[in-house]
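stage 2 :: seqdesign
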């Protein structure tokens, strides 16, 4: 919202606060951290401060790779999948 209305200083403050909360809480939500890093980086890019944006985008990329790896692992080995047993045919009366 702040970026769309060119309120970059407010956007920067909110993204920095969000990132600090995520880091302090030690949450392992890579997707949320990645989105916050990208938002803060975009704020800097819109302010023509690519030097500050670059390390944030690099961190966001690392988080994106972690997301991809965990999603790929979940697809390859779904947890808790029930085993399907073979069913014997039932004899119908009159056969």
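stage 2 :: out
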């Amino acid at each position: 919202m702040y970026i769309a209305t060119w309120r970059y200083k407010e956007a920067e403050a909110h993204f920095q606060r969000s990132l600090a909360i995520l880091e302090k809480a030690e949450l392992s939500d890579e997707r949320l951290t990645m989105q916050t890093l990208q938002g803060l980086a975009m704020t800097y890019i819109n302010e023509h401060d690519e030097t500050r944006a670059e390390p944030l985008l690099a961190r966001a990329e690392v988080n994106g790779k972690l997301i991809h790896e965990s999603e790929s692992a979940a697809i390859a080995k779904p947890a808790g999948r029930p085993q399907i047993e073979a069913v014997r045919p039932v004899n119908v009366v009159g056969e």
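stage 3 :: structure notes
- The CA atoms of residues 34 and 61 lie 7 Å apart.
- Residues 8-76 form one domain.
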